[in-house]
Design brief:
The protein has about 700 residues and is α+β, with helices and mostly antiparallel strands. It is about 40% helix and about 15% strand. It comes from Geosporobacter subterraneus DSM 17957.
Length: about 700
């Protein structure tokens, strides 16, 4: 299905690629307006049927990736760039919405003249802003300046005649210095390998001095018969700052530690640990309504069904024209921006894959909504503030908020919540029933049996019923709908509107939508991985660039990440120019948290902390018991020692007899420790052996032990 902002690539005779962006679609007149994103030309018209036929014949293709869009958060735009963007938007905002009038050359010419006179700017400036707006996806952020493309960050600068870098002070005395070319770099590598990567563990400064002695000296003087190299002045060789800069740039910690200390030391200490109302809507996607409610049911945890986790928050996104539910979110977050974010992201995603994640198989025709709308109507809450600015500027969506205490302005989504609740409430355990909360009645919260996953399954099936079978008895059909025998079922109204009304649905890459919606937070790069919410992550890029190795050896640092609380298995690092992102994976040893909601992970972590505190108290008591037992044994031994003071020898004799006493003790222990099977004892039960006889027996055994030793 062709929609606004779709990129069409055409085959040409030469190697140049012709790419057009769809700016306007009018199905009734079979006309669409497009613009060539690679040429400096105005929009022109094409027959919609010609584009569709060309795609079928393989002459044209739909481009899946929009390389002209930029992923950028409002808070990351500099004030200078915002000022340039807002100034351009102020000039063209009044005429870009006059579609399709703005695409007709004669009318466009008159509009450009009026705007240029009104704002006192040249006509060419207005034309430049218009083309830039159309080519880059019809969003406000399309007007941002391209300063991010300036410069040569990360590129090696070529070596010329002029000295690079900050000029030296006192050049009359010390000279201007030299540039580090390929020959100097080769000397640096030789010196580092020869003097630094050795077991002598020379400092970097000593390595630099030895390098100058060997490679930057041309004369020799003899003193006392010893040849001493004369080092060139600093103006004729590289400075220590140049040497250190190159060293840090190409530093290999693994090689350094392995050669200076040992490979074993590296492995031990330095390696990485790893969204009447219908009359306002022109068609599908014209207006979405979004709202949240707290479900009248108590849920239990996925970890343990004995843990009651409270009532979930249900977010819904509904199309005003067709009443089709385009997105949902069920969780414990909100009502808040995070909940609204997830519902809007769900409205743009493939519903086949979404339902499959919950064990429900559907076809695309059963739930075809996977686009962004032209505008969203919401409360004065989640979509009011800086979080919504990315929707307005980056995705080109108009945000409309209702006045305070006017929920009736969003009557469609409010009524949908009521009918959904009435439909499923009688069949669910743990439902809120205030009429039963009298003295002596059973607490309905104790009847909770469903977890978040199972409740989401119920809500998905309810949405599928609403979209495909629910009859809208109060929907006022238009005359054309009655002529076409369109039933008042959301899906049929949606499909009719797509075919007969001007399309307002926007095609945006799912990853771009998610990144523009996801909350951002600060994570810490450590030697164990990227630490975020007490979880650890890694990625191919971080491992390749040795992030964790550097963090362990040089110290940790902070980074900004985006995340989805519904799936904490991944977090995302956005590149500095906002043109790409790096996907990070949760480390394998945390498998117990895989595919779990953030709320349940947080609940489990708090539960574990509580259990650890309890176990710490028990452990302390056991340690106290052990201490008491040890003290008892020691006290008994001390008492026995005091009894035998009459046989006490001098200190010197005690020390001299250690070896002999050890040999005697060993012989006696061997007799007691030796294995004897079917051993019979001669002592009768209850028989008391006098102490004197034991002492005589001990003396006799000592004599026998001594005899064996000396034999």
């Amino acid at each position: 299905m062709l929609t606004i902002n779709t990129l069409i690539s055409w085959k040409t005779d030469d190697d140049n690629k012709k790419v057009e962006r769809i700016l306007w679609i009018e199905p009734q007149s079979n006309i669409t307006y497009v613009i060539d994103v690679n040429l400096n030309a105005f929009p022109y018209s094409r027959l919609l049927s010609d584009i569709e036929e060309s795609i079928k014949q393989g002459i044209a293709f739909i481009e899946p990736d929009d390389a002209f869009g930029r992923i950028i958060n409002e808070e990351d735009i500099s004030e200078k760039d915002k000022e340039a963007r807002d100034k351009a938007w102020e000039i063209i905002s009044e005429i870009v919405c006059l579609e399709p009038l703005i695409f007709i050359p004669k009318e466009r010419r008159n509009l450009i003249k009026k705007v240029s006179t009104l704002h006192n700017v040249h006509e060419n400036t207005v034309v430049k802003y218009l083309k830039k707006y159309w080519k880059r996806g019809k969003t406000k952020n399309a007007l941002l300046p391209d300063y991010y493309q300036c410069g040569g960050k990360g590129k090696e600068k070529s070596t010329g005649i002029l000295k690079r870098g900050r000029p030296r002070k006192n050049t009359e005395i010390f000279g201007e210095g030299i540039n580090v070319d390929d020959d100097i770099k080769r000397v640096f590598r030789i010196a580092v390998n020869k003097y630094y990567h050795t077991s002598a563990q020379n400092s970097l400064m000593l390595t630099y001095e030895l390098m100058r002695k060997e490679f930057f000296s041309n004369e020799i003087k003899v003193e006392n018969g010893i040849e001493i190299p004369i080092v060139k002045p600093s103006s004729e060789g590289p400075s220590y700052a140049q040497f250190k800069y190159w060293f840090e740039k190409e530093r290999n910690l693994k090689k350094e530690v392995s050669l200076r200390r040992s490979a074993k030391k590296y492995e031990q200490e330095n390696r990485p640990i790893i969204g009447s109302s219908t009359a306002e809507a022109l068609g599908p996607g014209s207006i979405y309504q979004i709202d949240a409610t707290v479900a009248d049911v108590y849920l239990v945890s996925q970890f343990n069904r004995n843990w009651i986790i409270g009532r979930p928050v249900v977010y819904g996104v509904i199309d005003v024209f067709s009443r089709l539910v385009t997105g949902i979110y069920i969780g414990l977050e909100g009502p808040s921006w995070v909940g609204a974010m997830m519902a809007l992201a769900n409205a743009t995603m493939d519903k086949v894959e979404f339902c499959r994640n919950y064990g429900i198989e559907i076809s695309t025709e059963e739930w075809p909504a996977c686009h962004l709308p032209d505008s969203i109507l919401a409360d004065r809450g989640e979509l009011e503030g800086k979080n919504a600015e990315n929707l307005i500027n980056a995705l080109g969506i108009r945000i409309m908020n209702t006045p305070p205490y006017r929920a009736d302005w969003k009557g469609i989504i409010e009524q949908n919540f009521k009918t959904t609740s009435d439909r499923v409430k009688p069949f669910m355990p743990g439902v809120v029933n205030p009429d039963l909360r009298e003295r002596g009645d059973k607490d309905y919260r104790l009847d909770a049996k469903l977890n978040l996953y199972e409740f989401t399954q119920i809500m998905i099936k309810s949405v599928l019923y609403h979209n495909n079978q629910h009859l809208l008895r109060n929907y006022n059909r238009e005359e054309m709908m009655i002529e076409d025998d369109v039933k008042c079922i959301p899906l049929e109204l949606w499909n009719w509107g797509i075919a007969n009304r001007s399309g307002k649905l926007k095609s945006v890459d799912a990853d771009i939508v998610k990144l523009c919606l996801m909350p951002t937070a600060t994570a810490t790069v450590t030697g164990k991985g990227i630490k975020f919410k007490n979880l650890y992550y890694s990625s191919k890029m971080t491992l390749k660039e040795n992030w964790f190795e550097k963090a362990r050896n040089k110290g940790s640092w902070k980074i900004k990440v985006s995340y989805d609380p519904r799936n904490m298995k991944y977090i995302y690092i956005i590149s500095p120019d906002h043109s790409d992102f790096e996907k990070c994976y949760m480390l394998d040893y945390q498998k117990s948290y895989f595919d779990k909601y953030y709320e349940e992970i947080e609940y489990l972590q708090e539960k574990e902390k509580l259990e650890m505190k309890k176990m710490a108290d028990d452990e302390l008591q056991k340690r106290v018991d052990l201490m008491a037992e040890i003290e008892s044994i020691v006290a008994k031994a001390d008492m026995e020692s005091k009894k035998e003071r009459i046989f006490q020898e001098s200190d010197s004799k005690k020390v001299q007899g250690i070896r002999r006493n050890r040999r005697i003790e060993k012989v006696l222990n061997r007799e007691n420790e030796a294995f004897e099977l079917s051993k019979q004892t001669d002592k009768k039960e209850g028989e008391v052996i006098p102490i004197d006889s034991d002492m005589e027996l001990l003396k006799r055994k000592q004599k026998e032990a001594l005899k064996k030793i000396y034999e």
